[in-house]
Specification:
The protein is an alpha+beta fold and 296 residues long. It folds into 3 domains: 36 residues, no CATH class; 77 residues, Immunoglobulin-like (Sandwich), CATH 2.60.40; 165 residues, Glucose Permease (Domain IIA), CATH 2.70.70. Helices cover 18% and strands 39% of the residues. The protein has 4 helices and 22 strands. A hairpin with a 2-residue loop joins β5 and β6. The longest helix has 18 residues. The protein is globular. The two termini are 23 Å apart. It binds zinc ion. Zinc ion (ZN) binds next to loops.
Length: 296
């Protein structure tokens, strides 16, 4: 029974003024029944990994808010997504520079929850790489910046309810060539960082959805090459760059393991899959999602 139905029933029965003795007994039982069913207070569950580049999995239960409740962390506010009656779900990111004390604040109805915890610093390492000067120049091309913005805009605007269930799988069964989070220096001067994982793969090898998803965005970027962006719901998205072919279209629903395209080197790179996992647009470590907390 939903809390608002309970409130309604209590109001209805509260109007009874002329009560015979037998009715008083009956209503006393009804009242006790309603207290036992409706007494459930909103509760917040927080799971996940508290390290830089990690993510927290939030579940609000018995929250009768009609409007999405919100969570505030690291200066950002995120809206929960409805997971069922009285149930709201949300994944929030921890930036790769969030080491130290972090506070999470959640509001449901008039009730507030606060959690304080320590985010563990993570040394993701450094890499110096040399790129063809024309490829490097492409990063600063306004068209490339516009390509990136479309990806982030699609992920930030995404309000898909949770689609994934349980652990993610690798999109390609291939060795990892570059890890997540590496600080990079390009051609000795340009600074950047690696927002995803690179998986070797061979040109034309199938790329699979790592979890159930809906296709948010597809594009042919000048540096990103052929691009697919998926939403897995609850704020979690994933990005696939340099594809040889795109085999899905925007709005299409995918099951875990379904092919979305093939590995390639479009955008001027040697063939490999660049794979990102993003939470509300912020890059997090994709490997986190190989071990999704129980109940998610
Ligand atoms: Zn990459």
């Amino acid at each position: 029974m939903a809390p608002w139905e309970c409130k309604q029933m209590m109001n209805i029965h509260g109007k009874v003024t002329r009560v015979a003795e037998w009715a008083a007994v009956r209503y006393a039982f009804l009242f006790l029944f309603l207290i036992s069913v409706c007494g459930a207070q909103p509760s917040l569950s927080v799971k996940g990994n508290t390290y830089e580049g990690g993510a927290l999995f939030l579940t609000l239960s018995n929250c009768a808010d009609e409007n999405p409740p919100s969570a505030r962390i690291e200066g950002e506010t995120y809206e929960f997504l409805r997971g069922g009656e009285g149930l709201w779900e949300l994944v929030v990111p921890l930036s790769t520079e969030s080491g130290g004390p972090v506070k999470l604040a959640v509001k449901c109805d008039e009730q507030s929850f606060e959690r304080s915890f320590q985010v563990t610093s993570r040394n993701y390492g450094h890499q110096s790489i040399t790129l063809n000067p024309s490829t490097l120049a492409g990063y600063d091309d306004p068209q490339n910046k516009a390509d990136d913005k479309k990806i982030i805009d699609a992920l930030e605007a995404d309000r898909t309810a949770k689609l994934f269930s349980g652990d993610f799988i690798y999109p390609v069964q291939a060795p990892q060539t570059t890890g997540f989070g590496l600080r990079r220096t390009y051609n000795g001067w340009k600074k950047g960082w690696h927002k995803g994982l690179d998986l070797a793969g061979w040109e034309g090898e199938a790329v699979q959805a790592p979890a159930d998803a809906v296709v948010l965005h597809t594009a042919r970027g000048i540096v990103n090459g052929n691009t697919v962006v998926l939403s897995h719901g609850a704020g979690v998205g994933s990005v696939y760059l340099h594809l040889n072919s795109i085999q899905v279209s925007e709005g299409q629903e995918l099951k875990k393991g379904q092919v979305l395209g093939t590995v390639g080197g479009t955008g001027g790179f040697a063939p490999h899959l660049h794979w990102e996992t993003r939470v509300h647009g912020m890059p997090v470590n994709p490997k986190l999602f190989f071990t999704v907390p129980s109940g998610w």
